[in-house]
Automatic annotation (TrEMBL):
Name of the molecule in the record: 5-methyltetrahydropteroyltriglutamate--homocysteine S-methyltransferase
Cofactor(s) this protein requires: Zn(2+)
Pathway per the UniProt entry: Amino-acid biosynthesis; L-methionine biosynthesis via de novo pathway; L-methionine from L-homocysteine (MetE route): step 1/1
Domain (Cobalamin-independent methionine synthase MetE N-terminal): residue spans on this chain: 7-295
UniProt keyword annotations, A-Z: Amino-acid biosynthesis, Metal-binding, Methionine biosynthesis, Methyltransferase, Repeat, Transferase, Zinc
CDD domains from the UniProt entry: CIMS_C_terminal_like, CIMS_N_terminal_like
UniProt binding sites for Zn(2+): 626, 628, 650, 709
Role according to the record: Catalyzes the transfer of a methyl group from 5-methyltetrahydrofolate to homocysteine resulting in methionine formation.
EC class (word): transferase
Gene name per UniProt: metE
GO term, biological process aspect, one: methionine biosynthetic process
Active site: 677
Amino acid sequence: MSPFPTSTVLGYPRIGPHRELKRALESYWDGRATRDDLDRVGAEIRERTWRRLAELGLEGLPSNTFSMYDQVLDTAVLLGAVPARYRDADDPYFAMARGTEQLAPLRMTKWFDTNYHYIVPEIGPDTVFELDPGKPLSEVREARALGYETRPVVVGPVTFLLLASALDRLDEVLACYEELLSVLAAEGVAWVQLDEPALVADRTPEELAAVRTAYERLGAAGARPGLFVATYFGETGEALPVLAGTPVEAIGVDLVRGGVPGIDLPGKTVVAGVVSGRDVWRTSPERALAALAGVRAGRVTVSTSCSLLHVPYDVAAEPRLDPALKERLAFAEQKVAEVVALSRTAFPSSTAGLVPAAPSVAPSVAPSVAPSVAPSVAPSVALPAPVAAEGRGPYAERAAAQAERLRLPPLPTTTIGSFPQTGALRAARAAVAAGTLSREDYERRVEAEIERVIRLQEGLGLDVLVHGEPERNDMVQYFAEHLDGFAVTANGWVQSYGSRCTRPPILHGDVGRPSPITVRWAAYAQSLTGKAVKGMLTGPVTIVAWSFVRDDLPLRDVVFQVADAVREEVSDLEAAGVKIIQVDEPALRELLPLRRAAQDDYLEWAVATYRRATSGASDRTQIHTHLCYSDADQILAAIDGLDADVTTIESARSGGRILGAVKAFGRGLGPGVYDIHSPRVPSAAEVEELLRATLAVLPAERVWVNPDCGLKTRTYEQVEASLANVVAAARELRDAL
Ligand SMILES: CN1c2c(nc(N)[nH]c2=O)NC[C@@H]1CNc1ccc(C(=O)N[C@@H](CCC(=O)N[C@@H](CCC(=O)N[C@@H](CCC(=O)O)C(=O)O)C(=O)O)C(=O)O)cc1
Ligand SMILES: N[C@@H](CCS)C(=O)O
Ligand SMILES: [Zn+2]
């Protein structure tokens, strides 16, 4: 078996440096491009990636890290786990990802504690696992034709089955992985990477036994490539000795979030993730080299802590960033250079397998790995003492005051905030940035859009209106642009799901709110209608979760700083006469630590930050919150602790599985009745069915009727048709109450 290369990355961005894949996908979905056009763009992105990684001097090139939509969906296809109902669709892959007119898509949820979403495999009694190795095989061949030998990357069997809640199918799935190993060996592949991030969370003895079974069995497979099991997103903990006891040759550990393994791994290669794949800060060579030197293994390889999927491509594509900040940043390209430089520094004399020379390796590294710069921020403000919901009375009193003021019908209908972001609006924002459209003209267009959205909602008969968020490029970036302490990027796109990307802001200094951010638009929208219009804010946890955050302060201190800025905005909205204020916290679940031991502490401070942001509101002001994920079961007590008067939550996309869990909620609740992630328009009958399911578990006087999430990714055509059906269903049931 050839030795594992001395430098590698666990994966790379794949949307394209200029979001080429996004555009190609959306053209294909809209019928403006053929499948061949789409495939050509995919091939160009893969080729560019391999060439670039090789040019940067990286030795171990991964393949099969490209995906047309999602790597978990790719793994389901690899294993033949395509539910029968999708098999006859024009394009079964995208039918599973996005749905069709006839078929709802598969569930989608967050990939561990990231803002990336994967498609949840559906495995049932009818699932027959059957290997289809076409994708990894063709990527190996494609790279080879370009002159590159690669290491295919596949989601590992244990993580795949845990994500699908189907660990009982291990035996069948392992047969497919054995066959895959044999196919790859026949192709001359030297190493395969099996991603097992699930091993950094707490695992039961049965789950650890499954890890042992899986890797003993795969290790015993006849002709096979070297097995590299990659764990990431935290400390591997109790799964590490289990893996070490199996025949796998290489184990990946995250040395950014986890410590240096406390055990000797003499017969193994440790693929040491010392360059973070989760932040944008340059790596401290001293810290990285010390970590490498501490690993006690047969051989050590330098790597990233996880795939670089979660960071943008290239700092060089950011001409407008402050040079002093830019100095401190590393995106994917720079991180690859860091990996290479660290590997050359740690293992100066050889390419053949290596134990770092000595812990005192001098950090005489290539310029790309300059010593980390101390954060150039002003001294932090003192951490404010957490406050309870001071100022706000008990829910019953608040509810009475609000009912009196708002006079809403039973089963009130509303939306989550955003309306479609049109091409014209996006182009107008780009024109302002380019200096070809004046801010005044832009603001007039935003006002015109707000008026259109208000009239549309009035026409549809919605009860609580929104202004539609047309002035926002993104619910986090927009606030970052108006707060001190943040920088935003021009091209720092990171994939969130499918073709959808965000540019996570860079939170590098102390946070402050120099002036009101949303009040002008909220007040304008309210001036157009007699119906209540919700003021719309993003909560402190979410603003921080969806940014790249300074690492010199505890996260909670940073979130409290943001909470104070949100609190000021709440107060200004109230003063402007806004009667309902929604403070979204869709990332509350996402930041939940993967290990149980750290969860209670997190939830306690996260809830306290929300209450700090909202508790200045009077009892007459109705506070809404919104969370868009279905696996909220673990944090229901925390959601309750937010003490919002109304909570809207994803439910439609996940078939109402949240309903049983939320029945204990004592305040207003709107489980979504319209899956906005799919272009599909739900019928009124479907919406009615979901509403009936809600009414079966919750008292009608507390039920709200709303979509799963905001409508910004949909078209007006889809939204008008869908919301008409939502309103019709609500009226039907309201009349029957
Ligand atoms: C609600 N969700 C969000 C998450 N994270 C966020 N940060 N924001 C969210 O809303 N996580 C969970 C969920 C689901 N995730 C997403 C993520 C991304 C989107 C989305 O719709 N993204 C848009 C891009 C949004 C944006 O920044 N728009 C800018 C720039 C638009 C643009 O592409 N401009 C063009 C030029 C203009 C033109 O001529 O068209 C360019 O730069 O080339 C803006 O509007 O100004 C996406 O399309 O990916 C949704 C949910
Ligand atoms: N208010 C936001 C929440 C998304 S999670 C929206 O409607 O897009
Ligand atoms: Zn949402």
